Batch of 4 targets.
Target 1
Amino acid sequence: MADVRRAEWIVDCDVHNAPVSDSALRAYLPAEWRARRDTVGYLATAWQQYRENLGDRSYMGAEYPRPTPRASRVDAWPPSGNPPASDLDFTRSQLLDSWNVAFGVLNPLLGAAEQLNDEYGAALASAINDWQIAEWLDPEPRFRASICVAYEDADLAVAEVQRVAGDPRFCQIQMLSRTREPMGRRRYWKLYEAAVTHDLPIGVHYGGWGGHPITGAGYPSFYIEDSGGMATAFQAQVTSLVLEGVFERFPTLKVVLIEGGFAWLAPLMWRMDRAWKRLRAEVPDITRPPSEVIRSNIWFTTQPMEEPPTPADFETLLGHLDMSDRIMFSTDYPHWDFDSPTQALPPGLDAEMRRRIMRENAVALYGLDPQPQLEAAVG
């Protein structure tokens, strides 16, 4: 185990684990769903085959060609040739040990919530969570995990949260940034209530398709547009969550926006505050300026982090946000745009701010206790 006694130990809030093969998850499905999967497949595979066979140009997810296979670092493939982040020992060595990661939060992007058959999505989510417990959390105490849920059906999602939330190694509930409806809508409120009941943040990760064009102006042509424009989905979700009154109804709800950036947030808060002052009669339940709601209930991760051409301007950006206790470090391992812990933040950043971002904010949000890691290192 890495020496977490060193001052440089960190918390990585976005690590993507993957199964060695499709059969790895199949083993955790109930027999009924294994049979259905074997017979009819599942959404991602079936749709990909349909497009390839018929030349359909419709877009139902993150299917634009990536700069590298599986969107991963070229050195993230284990010696076995299995997919990146599917080999625990290799991930442990390349990520946890190499960068002194005391805690890594797992965010598996395996399509449970994107199934059009919500019942199958719920079964797949349960399989993913059981797979995480058996193959990641049990053998590696430095990992924490997100609870996968079929969040488009709130009842099914809540049932899964209730099933596994008693395991303290699950530290948040996972959603994706493109949903069927804006996240402030009532269809998701039962899930937010469960999150509050179990004191679990909602982690909203880059991705999803929601059945709609991925931009407000339709379908883009290239992956660079998909990747670069993802922040607009997060902006829409923040606007919806705040102005639909989610945080008034659930004042202790915590939302983490993962892999969506945050430099866009300051002007969005200014615009929302201005609109609220003029139009607040339309939303009488919103009793505080939107910027105040955001600062009390929303967190962000760093990767990908917008970087001003002049490094000193980064601290100016943080000053505009006034959210130094809400930004948390992430690498996005094993993806091609991985952020090295030694290079992600601008040189010269205030040492206290660096500590907050690299570990302290995440420790506070997720209730992490580094003491067992420290004792293990000493032992």
Target 2
Amino acid sequence: MRHSDLAQLERDFGIYLPSVQGFVESGWKHNLSLAMDAQPSLVTTANNGIPAFLTTLVDPEIVRVLVTPNRAAEIYGETQKGNWTTRTAMFPMIESTGEVASYGDWDNNGSSGANANFPQRQSYHYQTITQYGDRELDTMGEAKINYASELDMASALVLNKFQNETYFVGVAGLQNYGALNDPALPPSISPTTKTAGGTTWDNATADEIFADFVKAYQDLVARMKGVGDFDRMSELVFALAPDREAYLTRTNQYNVNVYDQVKKNFPNSRIETATQYDTDAGSIMQVFTPKIDGRQTSYCGFTEKLRSHGFVRGLSDTKQKKSQGTWGWIGRYPVAFTTMIGI
């Protein structure tokens, strides 16, 4: 079929046959000087596609990077003390003293008194700054990202992550301690030795893991000496790292797992997890009772949860400072805590 015939079909009937090829007629093959509608060279750059952005989808749902949860306040409780001008806090402590003597009508022996101490903690205040340019803000807007809002969330996250960390380890150089390094905490104890060797739970049986719970509880009982009617029916918290908590699913020969054993023997206990219990010195399990005679044994302290300072407008940018303050962890009754390291 000739090209002229194809063109006629397109004009007259709207029939397009792009895949049909035209061939040189046999009578013309001897004359190579015929042009036969030869294709001239390209004026534009050779291309076989379109701009990539035209086939790119931008998902409107933003994927946020995952971070570990802040668990200290949930585990120990949290309380505000003072405000951002408060630098030192005193916690009065009273101990009753006295002695008795044999009675006599004219005797003046025996005495009663009270000894007062004033332990102190120092606050630590910290800050972060958000900053964005006018053009930067509009550019992010082209990608449907509310950049100013994202920076606000980032600043709150940064501050709260640091605060959570101080609740566990305090602030170096100050009388500001954490639940894992307060000098008033009793010395840590070691787990039981496992049949497979070592003390960790990696190769431990369910009964061996539960034995560590019992050992930690027994250590706590030995120091509490019945204060506040403390016994296994009291409220208890077993705090450990998330990867150690996974071992509580191990079962013994009677098909009973560690978690069930813990809940049966310590019915008012709860198990909490936080990544901070996984330390360079070994994985930690901390056991404590949250209250003695209705009084909190510890809490996490802060001066202000968040202070949002004023916006500072530049020529074509905006800045804002945000700040917080922490007392770290306040151990009111450190005797109520047992720390087992090496699980």
Target 3
Amino acid sequence: MIVKAQQVASTLKLIDPSVRAVLIFGRDDGLVREYAAKIGKQIVEDLSDPFNVARPTPEQLKATPSILLDEIAALSMMGGRRLVRLENAGNDCRDAVALALDSVMGDGLLVITAGDLTKTSALRKLVEGHKKALAITCYADEMRDVMGLIRQVLGDAGLTPTQDALSYLASNLGSDRAVSRGELEKLVLYMGTTAGQISLADAEACVGDTAALVLSTIAEATTGGNLKQLETVLERAFTAGESPVAILRIVSGRLMKMHLARGTMDYERISARQAVDKMRPPIFYKEKDAFTQQLERWPLGRITLALDIVADAEADCKTTGLPAEVIAARTCLRVARAAR
């Protein structure tokens, strides 16, 4: 069964005991892992417990599809339900999952995580059409999701950002939930036990010299057509061990902001500056001029094409086996040349 967006929160809190499997998939790897952990902790408190948590691999299932059912049917040494985690699953796992779903043996819960499965994916179609399974799609965080995450993490620590600080954080956090949460937790640690308001200076001091800012600079150089700066920051990012997929996603996030602003600009027949001023949350004031200038040079159709190119590059990073750093760098340079 498909879990609709408005049902996700309740599902993460309580899984129906009749459910045998949950498939969590999508482009946002961080959110996929976060959801899988929350569901898993409904079954076992310690996700690293070797007695109550089994982790068969897709490679093992290819050789012996029945392993999945055996793990679900196994009795827990400590009592209660067992958790079975199948990570990086693909369509080649479909038959093993079907065998586990159609059996009545055991009461273990199977949590499957996967990348961006298409609607025609055999594994996705199986789970979405089975009454004893749930399918949850994890889309890359949109701006409102990032804002909600900022307020949640900082609010739990008794901290409230000023409007400038909130705008800065929203502009410098990417679309990957795990990366964004990590950056916010650094900020909480930086503030220490001081409860109260986070100023722009606090946000800049903690996030300004981090990988998040490097990625943001890559995105700005890409859409601005600044080839020299782009080559420099790409080299810096790869030397620091940044993920090529994270780089592509931050570029995609900037392009999506530009797509929204350009669509508003064309539909309402207003200037680029007026369209940028209408954006919520607002573009960080130090970046507004550069963003506006870039927006004037990018027609809507070209932004759409650039988004497709970046999305295809991410898929290539995950599926082709080619060097992901090369794919990401070439894609950024290709988009940057289009910007010129």
Target 4
Amino acid sequence: MKRSFAPIIVMNGPAAILFAAVVACFVALQAPGTEASSTVRPPVNGAFIFSYFKNNGEDGLHLAFSYDALVWHSINADKPLLTPTVGRDRLMRDPQIIQGPDGLYRMVWTTSWSEPVLGYASSKDLINWSDQQAISPMATEPDVRNVWAPELFYDGSRRQYLLFWSSTIPGRFPETDNSNLNGRNHRIYCTTTTDFHNFSPTRLFYNPGFNVIDATIARDGTRYLMFFKDETRAPVPQKNLHYAVSTDPDGPYGPASAPITEKSYWAEGPSAIKVGSRWIVYFDKYYDEKIHQHSEHVYGAVASGDLKRWEDISAQLSFPAGTRHGSVLPVSRTVLEKLLQL
């Protein structure tokens, strides 16, 4: 068995007691047929998985695991588990994975900087994947410039998947056309599906009044939280994370919150999960100590128990080197053990 971490995986005696204490605060995974949610906790003896890409996303899907959602270890010696085959540029950026009520893991990702095509594949075990599928959700918008950072959320009340992403349609929101100095002026769009072959008409999903990318949705009891990035660079750089609230995953979502990340760095690609009573929002973090003339990609996180007061806990994190824009999900111990045999 190949492993790239120090902790012992099979635990007995005091180690097992300690591990049980760590995860005792996690609530059980929802039973099949209920709404999937990023606020559920892994069961006892479960773990967290983090999907991510490296460099520009050329080599494919990378996975890491953690027992405490803070210290992450690479899986498969940090070699990719799936190589991209769809899209003109053959990239696998921003991979996001959820598990549906049928037990299948479903992943979507960015395939290109400029081709408006996203990738989709499914798996029973996160190891063996279906044939990759190219989806063109903006086909009715011939001038669209891109389809970035797609994500999924399972809407249990409607028994369908909500698929959403960021796109620029030139001239659609002229008041913020120059907000990023590169002609890109994003808003969040969405469609729904039950089978990933037939899709509802694409629609505008969220417009906070500014250039917005990298949306992700998490359930919080009877409400839903959408975390996202303010992509504004001009006239005053923002590049920070916010959230909005809705009583329905399908929206509408309310106004953007105040920034939850600091001004001393730029943040993007949020992924959120509730561990015990505390929300953790991970993000791809890049520092700007020379007025945005130099940046260094590292992974960061902020945490909050009330969604009002946010603490930067980046110093508590440990991620595989080069981790970029990923997503977090809970898995069973059985799923993890099979991954660790790679």
